[in-house]
TrEMBL record:
InterPro entries: EF-hand-dom_pair, EF_Hand_1_Ca_BS, EF_hand_dom, S-100_dom, S100_Ca-bd_sub. GO terms for molecular function: calcium ion binding; calcium-dependent protein binding; chemoattractant activity; transition metal ion binding. It holds the Pfam family S_100. SUPFAM superfamilies: EF-hand (SSF47473). This is Protein S100-A15A. Residues 113-143 form the EF-hand domain.
Amino acid sequence: MMCCSLLPESPLSPAALPLWPQTVPYPGWGPAAMTDTPVEESLFQIIHCYHQYAAREGNAETLSLEELKALLMDNVPRFMESLLVEGPEVGYVPGQVDDSLPTPQGRKEPYYIAELFRAADKNKDNQICFDEFLYILGKLVKDYHLQYHRQLCAHYSAQHNLY
């Protein structure tokens, strides 16, 4: 079962495109155009980071569990450290990862990444293709968004003497 949306025969598949093409399939696309805004630069950096870690061993288009752990340890260390912090266990069921559960922020869960890997690996090939990586990225963004709101609320509360 093919995981990623681009088929090997596709003229746009990663194997068919050179790493930095001189001409790109769509005008205005490519590394130079992607650096025009902070969001586009961030997207390009995420894609580059994914491929950098995927190329470390085995299939250069997928992440193994070890490659995923290395990517997260190196690139989202605050999130990874939060998995080892003691905290309330409210609403979290060990061994279960899905969108209805709160994020593991502040919980002692050293096995969370392995559980997240299994939940993201939709085709159960023990590899994470880019489409499956987007699920993990979505969980990370949701967690960072929650932290943003917690900090914003704490700042507002401190300003208005609500504590």
